[in-house]
């Protein structure tokens, strides 16, 4: 009884300390509840997408509860929210500006659907696949850097969510998961140009038909949803006469994850088909032809 009386008297003498301790206690309870619910959802939900979204939803609800609890404890009334924000905003804005922007960015990403886990994006000069989004950071598996192709570099990058407000975001997979690429082929003058054209067009139709069929319906959705003109998704061949050769240019559409392998397949099949023409079609290369070597008189300096 004496211990209880002592703590009651101490609580009366230190009301602010008691209030802070109560606030800390409830914050810890909320954080523990968030962690527990996330673990339960991870075990009980088999689908990765649903499990991920549920865990993020629980996390957001927990943060909202902590914000409401903070307002209740430090203002005494939830209705005093505007006044409390007005008094605290100056200091908080200066000291926690980046953190606030990151948290706001996470809400912006979630509700506006700027990108989601699984998307391939480029932001702040970094390109990669999004593997996680939390309240502060977007985690990406990096692509490129010292790797010239669209392969993973092996580095995992954590990028502040505040960058969604600071620059452009390139999304390779949202709405239209295809990109345009091109194939250039130099053909020597004197080759059978019509035969070369038929080889390139036939090979392109065989290799790219699946992507063309898939992209047509997706492109119609883009045209319906955005102010953009219709575009041709079928591969088209263009020829340019240069000083050294006939330049074949083939723009084509391809799945953004299969750009490198598709170009490799085109090179392989077209190269083999050209070899089978028995010299009717010849690839060109940069060469130099010496027309005439001028005569140079060399005098023996020792005799002069």
Main features:
single chain; 304 residues; alpha+beta; SH3 type barrels; Alpha-Beta Plaits; 5-stranded antiparallel beta sheet; 3-stranded antiparallel beta sheet; 18% strand
List the helices and strands and how they pair.
Blueprint: H1 2-13, H2 15-44, H3 48-75, H4 81-95, H5 97-112, E1 120-123, E2 126-133, E3 137-143, E4 152-160, E5 169-171, E6 178-187, H6 193-225, E7 238-241, E8 246-255, H7 259-275
Helix pairs in contact: 2-3, 6-7
The arrangement of helices and strands along the chain is: HHHHHEEEEEEHEEH
N-to-C span: 125 Å
- Under CATH at level 1, the class of the largest domain stands as Alpha Beta
Secondary-structure-derived class: alpha+beta
Structure, described:
The protein is α+β, with helices and mostly antiparallel strands. It contains 7 helices and 8 strands. The chain has helices at 2-13, 15-44, 48-75, 81-95, 97-112, 193-225, 259-275, and strands spanning 120-123, 126-133, 137-143, 152-160, 169-171, 178-187, 238-241, 246-255. Strands 4-3-2-1-5 form a 5-stranded antiparallel beta sheet. A hairpin with a 2-residue loop joins β1 (120-123) and β2. The longest helix has 33 residues, at 193-225. The chain starts with a helix and ends in a 29-residue tail after the last helix.
